[in-house]
């Protein structure tokens, strides 16, 4: 609803400026503490108008004409600023639109196809805590972009040819695979054992190099051993991702770009630019004019390709299948992703948009799969759900075990997702168990509890015969400050989705969801709802509770977090 209000503000200002003989591409619209939206266009045009900004602002406001039914209310100048408030139509239409559109409220204003790649962890063991920020940021972005109206295909790019996979393949020929374990954990066991041998007997590294050469040259037996190893790990990784409400549409394998000839073709395309040279037998790309002192290696001395080479072919393929490509990558990929973009630009191919995130950690410290020092995502989720169960059991001891487990799962997964995504991607963060599960800290449990509270209010009112969801209501009766504040906060949902989709910063929707829950609780704290004496006012306030329930559920869904009806 806010986007429509903003559009009407833009149109009103443009028309006023044209009537005065001025035009501009930038109206200087910005958020304001003193109005729903403010414009500093008078600053921008004062020189052209040959008058001071305050005088020009007054002229512009005087020239504004609003059509009947406009969402715009009060317009006034404060010095050179033009402050614009939404009118009663905005408030009333918001309530009506939420009740009509329900789960569709706040979206479907963008179009185009996006391929978004996230997670793509090496399949040499389970996801650990260091990986899941990638998964959660990526999945939340997918949900935001879909809500905005884009067609989004989510991809997990499977590294099935690298050194780590060669080691896993070799390890499976040496050690017994524990089929009683979750497959990705069993893969980690043999991978760790293999690395111990490689550290103790360095001459064994030649066996790994040989496997990498065989798989790239098309040796069927080696290809099969790599594929089996990868399938074991990916099967387990998928299970973990689904547990976090994360799913992918496709799992393209990098070996496919070798088999198709795409890697060879892109190497020749890069050679044709004249940027390549021989560096002690390796083929490297000079990207100095793009600001990179370090050359990019695209072929080893033994003629095999690197992950980067195959990644270039993968991006060329993606670029032909979508309007936009988005990659979610850790901070350790900052250099290589920059070189990848520069190389694609040099050969005239579409470049990806890169979302770089800093890492999440636990107080326990850093993690390494190779050394066997990691806390798996599965372990984290088990522990957080145990803690969530204890919290639910403490609050609702009278409920059966099935209810407690269901709510604990929603609360636990929600706590992890929210605590990780609430921080802007470029900032590092430490996952804090206690804060994530604290119902009073305004994290996921606080937002979920607000949704459950709305459900409980409506259920109680319906049981008492005080609420009929099909009944026509009059939103103009909602005039209390906390009512209007809540309605305006819900109306801004589409604007928040738009900002998140534009900036690719999912933490903004996390902050919004918390503020929305707070606005709902403030409304319910200060305004009688079920106990309201007048029937029409009670009906309108219950409709507002229903609106809050709908938009809270929409916000939680966009965050990939469950919306329990009872806690």
Automatic annotation (TrEMBL):
Which Pfam families does this one have? Arg_tRNA_synt_N, DALR_1, tRNA-synt_1d
Catalysis performed (reactions) = tRNA(Arg) + L-arginine + ATP = L-arginyl-tRNA(Arg) + AMP + diphosphate
GO terms classed as biological process? arginyl-tRNA aminoacylation
> What's a single GO MF annotation on this record?
arginine-tRNA ligase activity
Q: Where is the signal peptide?
A: none
DALR anticodon binding domain residues are 447-567
Into which EC class is this enzyme placed? ligase
Among InterPro entries, the record links this protein to: aa-tRNA-synth_I_CS, Arg-tRNA-ligase, Arg-tRNA-synth_N, Arg-tRNA-synth_N_sf, ArgRS_core, DALR_anticod-bd, Rossmann-like_a/b/a_fold, tRNAsynth_Ia_anticodon-bd
Keyword Protein biosynthesis on entry? yes
Q: Does the keyword Protein biosynthesis apply?
A: yes
Say where the protein is mainly found. Answer: cytoplasm
Q: Which SUPFAM superfamilies match?
A: Anticodon-binding domain of a subclass of class I aminoacyl-tRNA synthetases (SSF47323), Arginyl-tRNA synthetase (ArgRS), N-terminal 'additional' domain (SSF55190), Nucleotidylyl transferase (SSF52374)
The record's subcellular location field reads:
Cytoplasm
Keywords assigned by UniProt, alphabetized: Aminoacyl-tRNA synthetase, ATP-binding, Cytoplasm, Ligase, Nucleotide-binding, Protein biosynthesis
Q: Which residues cross the membrane?
A: none
Please provide, in alphabetical order, the Gene Ontology terms of the cellular component aspect for this entry. Answer: cytoplasm
The UniProt record lists the Arginyl tRNA synthetase N-terminal domain at 7-86
Show where the record puts the motif 'HIGH' region: 121-131
Output the superkingdom of the source species. Answer: Archaea
EC number(s) from the headed UniProt entry = 6.1.1.19
Q: Which SMART domains is this protein grouped with? A: Arg_tRNA_synt_N, DALR_1
PANTHER family per UniProt? ARGININE--TRNA LIGASE, CYTOPLASMIC, ARGINYL-TRNA SYNTHETASE
Q: Which family does it belong to?
A: Belongs to the class-I aminoacyl-tRNA synthetase family.
Q: Could you identify this protein by its name?
A: Arginine--tRNA ligase
- The source organism is Methanolobus vulcani
């Amino acid at each position: 609803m806010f986007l429509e209000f903003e559009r009407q503000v833009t149109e009103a200002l443009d028309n006023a400026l044209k009537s005065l003989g001025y035009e501009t591409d930038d109206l200087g619209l910005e958020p304001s503490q003193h109005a729903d939206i403010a414009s500093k266009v008078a600053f921008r045009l004062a020189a052209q108008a040959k008058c001071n900004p305050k005088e020009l602002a007054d002229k512009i406001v005087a020239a504004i004409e609003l059509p009947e039914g406009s969402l715009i209310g009060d317009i006034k100048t404060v010095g050179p600023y033009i402050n614009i408030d939404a009118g009663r139509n905005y408030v009333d239409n918001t309530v009506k639109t939420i009740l009509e559109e329900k789960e569709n409220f706040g979206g479907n204003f963008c179009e185009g196809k996006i391929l978004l790649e996230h997670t793509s962890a090496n399949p040499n063991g389970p996801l650990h805590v260091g990986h899941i920020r990638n998964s959660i940021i990526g999945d939340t972005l997918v949900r935001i972009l879909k809500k905005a109206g884009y067609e989004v295909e989510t991809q997990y790019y499977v590294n099935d040819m690298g050194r780590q996979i060669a080691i896993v393949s070799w390890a499976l020929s040496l050690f017994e695979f524990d089929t009683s374990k979750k497959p990705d954990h069993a893969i980690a066991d043999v991978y760790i054992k293999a690395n111990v041998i490689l550290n103790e007997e360095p001459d064994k590294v030649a066996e790994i190099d040989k496997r990498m050469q065989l798989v790239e040259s098309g040796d069927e037996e080696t290809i099969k051993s790599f594929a089996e190893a990868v399938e074991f790990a990916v099967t387990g990784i998928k299970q973990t991702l689904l547990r976090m409400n994360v799913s992918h549409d496709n799992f393209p394998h990098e070996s496919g770009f070798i088999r198709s000839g795409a890697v060879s073709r892109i190497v020749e395309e890069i050679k044709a630019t004249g940027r390549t040279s021989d560096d002690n037998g390796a083929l490297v790309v000079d990207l100095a004019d793009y600001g990179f002192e370090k050359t990019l290696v695209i072929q080893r001395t033994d003629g095999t390709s690197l992950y980067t080479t195959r990644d270039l072919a993968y991006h060329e393929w993606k670029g032909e299948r979508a309007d936009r490509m988005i990659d979610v990558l850790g901070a350790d990929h900052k250099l290589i992703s920059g070189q990848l973009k520069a190389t694609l630009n040099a050969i005239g191919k579409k470049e990806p948009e890169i979302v770089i995130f800093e890492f999440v950690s636990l107080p326990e410290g850093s993690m390494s799969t190779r050394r066997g020092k990691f806390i798996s995502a599965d372990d984290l989720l088990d522990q957080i759900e145990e803690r969530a169960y204890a919290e639910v059991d403490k609050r609702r001891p009278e409920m059966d075990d099935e209810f407690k487990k269901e709510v604990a799962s929603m609360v636990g997964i929600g706590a992890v997702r929210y605590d990780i995504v609430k921080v802007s991607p470029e900032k590092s963060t430490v996952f804090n168990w206690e804060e994530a599960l604290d119902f009073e800290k305004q994290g996921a449990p606080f937002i979920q509890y607000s949704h459950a509270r709305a459900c409980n209010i409506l259920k109680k009112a319906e049981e008492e015969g005080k609420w009929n969801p099909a009944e026509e209501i009059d939103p103009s009766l909602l005039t209390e400050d906390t009512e209007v504040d809540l309605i305006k906060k819900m109306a801004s949902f589409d604007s928040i989705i738009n900002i998140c989709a534009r900036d690719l910063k999912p933490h903004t929707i996390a902050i919004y969801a918390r503020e929305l829950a707070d606005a709902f609780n403030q409304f319910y704290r200060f305004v009688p709802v079920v106990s309201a004496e007048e029937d029409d006012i009670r009906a309108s306030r219950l409709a507002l509770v229903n609106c809050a329930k709908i938009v809270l559920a929409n916000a939680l869904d966009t965050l990939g977090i469950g919306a329990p009806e009872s806690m």
